Amino acid sequence: MNFLTSVQNFKNYTKLINNLFCAVLILFLLQLPDFIFSKINENYLFTFDIKDKVMIAFAVLMSFLTYTQKKILFIFFYILIMLEICYFNYFGNLIAPFDILLFFHNTFEIIDALQDLLLKLSIPILIIIVSLFISLKIIKYCDKIAVSKYNKSIFIFIISVLLIMPLIVAYQINIKHKEVPGRNPKLYTSSIKNMINVLDYFIAVTLPNSLSDKIPIKEFPKLNKISSPDVNIIFIIGESFRAKNAYLLGYNKENMPKLKQQHITIKKCISIGVMTKVSMGYMLNGASSLEEYSKIFTHDFSIFKLAKQNGFHTTFITAQPSVSFKYIKNLIDEKNIDNFKTPKYFYHSQFSSLNDAKLISLLKQINLNKQKNLIVFQMNGSHFPYSNKSPKDFKKFKSEYDNSILYTDYVLSKIIDYIKKIKKPTFFFFVSDHGELLGEYGQRGHGRLKKEVYEVPFIYYSNASNDKITDFLTKQKIIYQADIIKLIDYLLGYDVNITPNNHRKVQVIGRDLAGHVGYKIIDINNNIIKEAKTLYK
What we know:
The chain is α/β, with parallel strands linked by helices. It has two domains: 2-211, no CATH class; 232-504, Alkaline Phosphatase, subunit A. The chain is built from 20 helices and 13 strands. The longest helix has 28 residues, at 2-29.
């Protein structure tokens, strides 16, 4: 009996040794995709996390599970890894909590972009599939040699810990007032660790804040009407058009040949935000900084409200699909818009977007000679996927992004040609909502506080002279998006200060309206743009 007991103890001891061996393999396999991807993408900085106590504990506990239980957890963890490295492969950044919120806010827009993304994501997806296949084969072998006596209770314990962790994070932040990992994921760290931290922070902090964000209502001095001008104002908001790729601002490809022939004023402009929702929300409501955040929701300084108060007919038409536009619809003062149209007005499909050239014919339907108008158009512009933002006749460049700008050039030039035929004084403004990253810093898209994203082109044209606007645009070397709204308010007949100022600091707000994800202070000094500092709320 003692002999049999000794043999059994020896077998159990051997299996425990095998468990430790399996735990080491599991720790390695959970980081295998990161390791492979880091060898393919030099910007993805990663080293094996072999000293992290939490990762080691998870690996040891998982070694006691059955194959089926290990398989469930591996598939779950590998989904997290896939999301991380696919996101990094396209955008060049790790997923942050607010990116998750943006996914739920822009689900259909992201789905629409998948036609361009799938090819770019094929390598990371292949890495995940191959790594998972290898991992499942290895852990199946581990299941044969390791102890699995306590598998059910350990499995429940692991799931419970994963579910409880957001509550622990909420307690640490709200009760203990501690800084916890998650808001800013770190390079050199495994995808699993980053993603779990980010998910915990998202559930504990980002999501509750987004649902219960208190809007501080402040009182601002009302604008006084000083005249009742009989003019037309056309304000066109572009999409993802960055100054760096504008030929008339020094870009080496002639993607603005039509506007080159027009007598326009073009300048570099600093955008208020790096997301459409932010820049449009602030601009259309006359807000120029986080201190004026409440203006966005009261609409008291909406350009449409100011226009209606002074007898203007108001129009807003967007060329963007309804699934994208619905996220900014509540930021626009619809009750003061006479002619409000979205693609849903023209099409039944929520995925349909309006061809930008259609804006030309829609403009011609508005009476510009007999009534005074404020017209705001939102373009589809250069938003990804870039390949469907220009017709076949505009496929001049290898870069689809440059082709989209070539098409924007055509549309804007045609609108200016039409303005020339209008008898009534008509003032035309164009600015892009934000720019775009096209691989700089290993990143793509927008939503980042980078100069490629917040430096955009501004264009002005008029069929009539206005000394005050001419003086401002001549002396103001670099425009801020809020300046454009002041010029529009002035043309609407209101008393606003449009004195040029080439020595000032302005704000570029990050991915959310309240600046929680960050905002940058930009120091403008005589045509020199300097990033002063980045802050968080």
